């Protein structure tokens, strides 16, 4: 019915092919005199979305989630995933060949310490692990009397005979009408951070940081407009951008050369070696810099200084141009979302729609805006029990028909040049049960608590996280993911360093954009999530004795009134909901057709206790 441009629904490979790959890989390890190897779901820069040439974990195991790790030993093998992917991994991985284990509690290192034997040689690719990750592996090996071996070339690549070539997405200039700040001004701010750190140079190992600093975007990975690249910013003198020249048009090269020298990626190692030989101290991002970089600098006599990438925080605080752009992007996205939700309400009760139909339809409505560059992540469209899989991704094999009595959870986002969106709505198909209403209303109350939060400047995401969970906790239930993540400006939909979660230690600053997405998941039953994006703004409080912040909700889309148990809401919560729906109606209504207006009026009508 609809043509999908950005997403495919093919099932990952399984069965005989994967069994043969594991056998071939073990043979290669034996040839290299290794008794085991660690395969992270990572590229050289720890990107969330990686190029097809970097999908080693999926190629070997069949697991296609965005976070995970595998360890292959001579007789055992394990895939480690976090709580979002437990159900998915159990379905994708051959459990006769692989154990499925938790990624965090306990960590993979505990499993390694138990399964390695004295004298074992565990290999790892230092370009695919951070130094901290390598140190954890080394400690696990030491506990078992084993040795951690950094390999010069990845043994998995030796058996991956049909490995795709590296990507060559063209680089685009992200103009001042979107970026709001010239590269020269950004570099001045970065150099102040280099002075503060007391180092001679800073390596930008995160391609997002390179893209933001030099106002470029690219097309090397799915869903995030990244140009895979590095940069070296010295305390004095011109920075250097290391990027494959085949990605650069004349105009893109001219743009970069206004503020930096441009070299091929292979030039990074000799440049760092030369700096290190002069005893330079070089700052590395502990979250994205490969262990290989630390090793290279130290071996040449320099001082690798690991810590937080200062660009990460600069990038997270949006300027006025970026904020206005994201507001525009959300208003545009709201029109597509509203058309989609009206379509679902009209078509789903007929019983013919599937999850894939909904993914393709929503993408089509977004494409109709004329501004869609990509979806910001693969759309999660789960109905019935599929909705309980937190990061479910529909394939042709799992594609489920939407039936009356189901809940449809649809989590999606868009990349527009002026902003990135991410929104989740849970829709009742037919009559929901009392249990569905109870759980939905608890999730909604937590969502409203975050949206209405007022908090002193310097408050962290961890301090706010409880607000989202309190009503679920009262019923003895919870959700196994963070409440919110940072969002970029036509960059990653999952941006650090700030987040709302039990582990969110970064203070929230005005200008940051974060998601607000509590949920509830009943295994083999249904899933519920309500997600809006929030902008941190100054709170206007008379008599406040210190700076106080609040959230401005950016997302504009109706919340399903049929799933709300009004007896569970208090007056202030109901007031927030009615005000929100009035704003949605006011901002979206002029831009939709007459039939959608009728639907929108009903979907946003005020509720009374």
Automatic annotation (TrEMBL):
Cellular compartments per GO CC: cytoplasm
CDD domains per record: APP
Alphabetically ordered keywords of this record: Aminopeptidase, Hydrolase, Metal-binding, Protease
Domain Peptidase M24 C-terminal: 550-607
InterPro entries xrefs: Creatin/AminoP/Spt16_N, Creatinase/aminopeptidase-like, Creatinase_N, Pept_M24, Pept_M24B, Peptidase_M24_C, X-Pro_aminopeptidase_P
UniProt cross-references to Pfam families, sorted A to Z: Creatinase_N (PF01321), Creatinase_N_2 (PF16189), Peptidase_M24 (PF00557), Peptidase_M24_C (PF16188)
Residues of the Creatinase N-terminal domain: 21-152
Organism superkingdom: Bacteria
SUPFAM superfamilies linked to this entry: Creatinase/aminopeptidase, Creatinase/prolidase N-terminal domain
Residues in Peptidase M24 domain copies: 325-536
Example GO molecular function: metal ion binding
Family to which this protein belongs: Belongs to the peptidase M24B family.
Protein name: Aminopeptidase P family protein
Native organism: Bradyrhizobium sediminis
